[in-house]
Amino acid sequence: MKTPNIAVNRRWSGMSVRQTCIKHDLYTCGDNEDYEHMTGTQSLLCEMLSCGTLDLELLDRVGYDWDEVLGRLDWPDGEGFNFNGLLRAVVDVGIIHLRRAVYDRLSELEGIENSRELNDEEAEEAEALYHLDPDQDIEGFFNCLDTHVWFRQNGPVYRRYLSSALDSFEDNVGFFLTGGEEE
Asked: What whole-number distance in Å separates Cα of residue 81 and Cα of residue 87?
């Protein structure tokens, strides 16, 4: 006997989405009224990323290409595909861009050095940049709205010599990189 194909269509209200999240011990924020105003897209993203609607607003601040960010994740089947893992991937992309800025500036200084001797200021900059490692210098805490990113070390060097790249990092990651303000 052939099994018939049966499709069941269900419509979830915002309240039923929130109640399901609570029942399964998933992250929720807001009250039932907040969930009533949630769109289907927001509901889907909240479920997929285990986050609340206010957390989703952080994603609007991301300036990087989502394809580049998602390329940093082992998804859709891998571990870490949740909101905090997604934010970590955004910061990882920013670190890649900072690493490239360090490399580009050092290459530029080496090019100058091939045509003439570096002046004292350029030599000092090259020495400082040589010791940078964005993977080690930048840390983050990833917990939805409480996410923050900071310099673990060498912040003043980045601010002094790579201010444009740092501005680009902050604009595209969507978070201000704290630390390293003083010299």
From this structure: 10
